[in-house]
Each structure stands twice: as C-alpha cells, then as structure tokens.
Design brief:
Purple Acid Phosphatase, chain A, domain 2; seven-stranded mixed sheet; 7 helices; alpha/beta; single chain
Length: 289
Amino acid sequence: MESSNGSAHSLKGDLVFVADAHLRPGHAEVGRFVNFLANIRASASVLFIVGDLFDTWFGSPDLQKEHHKEIVTALRGLARSGIRIHFVEGNREFRIAQEFLGDPFYRVASDHLVEEYGGRRFFVAHGDMVNLKDWPYRVWRRFAKNPVTHFVLHQFPVPARNRFIDFLERSLKNTNHRNRKRFPMKHCSEFADRAFRRGVDVIILGHFHEERVIRYSRDGQEKMLCVLPAWCDGGGYLRFRGMSEGEFIWADGRSSPSRDISPGGEWSEDPAGRSRSGGRHTPQPAELP
C-alpha cells in the first residue's frame, strides 16, 4: 500500500533530501552512496529519497541486482537505527511499494509525499510531472507505470525481463533532451501555486539536476520551492534543521546556503553549464495533478 500524506510528529534530528543518484552496477558511486548513508546516521531524523535512486529499479524480488541489494541492505541498517526513510518514485522506479514498503521504507509514493517538520508543511515530489509541455514523457510514463504493462512484463522469464530493463536504461538516457535544456519556470511556478493553495509551505523537487531555491510570497507569508542537485554530480543533498532555511551539503564537506532565484526568472543553460535568468511570468492558479 502506498502512502501520500504524513501526520505531524516530533522530529529531533535533521530532515534530509537526496535525489537522482542514478546508481549503476559496478559503479564507484554505489559505495559512495553507502558511505553517505553512514555519514547522516548520527544527525538525521528523516531521509527522503526523491526518485531516480538507480538508473532503473523494479520492485520485484527476482529483478534485484547486486547493486540494488547492496543499497537496500545499507538502507535497512539506517532504518533499524531509528531513521525514517521515505521514498518517492522517480521516472526510473516502478512499483517499489510492492517489495519495499515497511522494509526499509516507512512510506512509499509514486507521486508525492507530505511531511510536517519544524512548523512547516513539506510537499515532496520527484518533479518529472511538472513540465506540462513534456508530453512525450507523460505518454511514456502512463504506459510504463501502468499495472497492465507490469503484468505483461512478468509473464516473460527473468532473463528476458533483464534484457528489457537493460534496453530501458539505454533508452532513457536519450529521451526528450529538448525539454531538459531549459528549466520550466512557468510550469514550475504554476505547480508551486497549486501546492501553496493547499497549505504547503515548502516544495521539494528532484529531476532537474541543479540546486535552486525559489521564494514566493503568499498571504503575507514566505513560501519556498527547493530543487535538489543530482547526487550523482557531486554527492549533493539538502538538509533542514528545525526552522532553518535549509542548506546544500556536498560529499567533499562543503555546505552552502541555497541560491535564490526570483519566481519571475526563467533559467536556461549557457555553454559553460551555468544557469542564467531572465523574462517574467505570473503564476496562474490551477488544481494539483
């Protein structure tokens, strides 16, 4: 069973968010992620894994590869130490609750989760459904996440399923680059506006592989949307302590306050890989998906 909403509870440690590790078999990042989990054990109260933990991950016992098992073992150790681990599926995970809800994950969702912490309400989603113009992905997601698709897939022997998964991993790396070149600020602000109207204070997204914080003013209160860095690009994650504004932490020990971008800006990539902002946009209210 999946869960999407969490009640408020007393948390004494940090709230930690990590996304887009994209772990692969035989890759050094697998061991580094195990070390990351060990490093946060002493200070974290809740860990959110906000999608794309692996290049692909299916929640079936017979489809678990060695790198999946190594990470799950480390996550189980973290959970047994008293840290709650919540998992939000990204575009590379499928039916994770089927096998891992309850062990090691306290909650699992295919869409979003809500957590109350430090007097604020956090809305956590991978972010792959924010860009309304990315319709090729939306069509593909509807097919890939469909229970019928998974039923058909499980009619084939394990070797054939593994070949399909390998094909899927190669295909996902080349999909729809046009919609990844420019951050979808317009759609992101509309998404944020819908969430804020439901009482959310902080939105956490992954998927876009670049850390950002966008601040909004709603009814005299400051709201914020945080975009997580890709863990695979340097071991970055986001940490909140109590009522703090949050800070990005890096594997090499660096920490930095969030870089603010006005909600009127629109990001695009320059040739050096940095971001720039420009343009204006006024969010329009709408219903959350």
